[in-house]
Amino acid sequence: MSGREGGKKKPLKAPKKQNKEMDDDEVAFKQKQKEEQKALEALKTKASGKGPMCGTGIKKSGKK
Question: Which segments carry the region annotation Disordered (predicted)?
Answer without folding.
Answer: 1-64
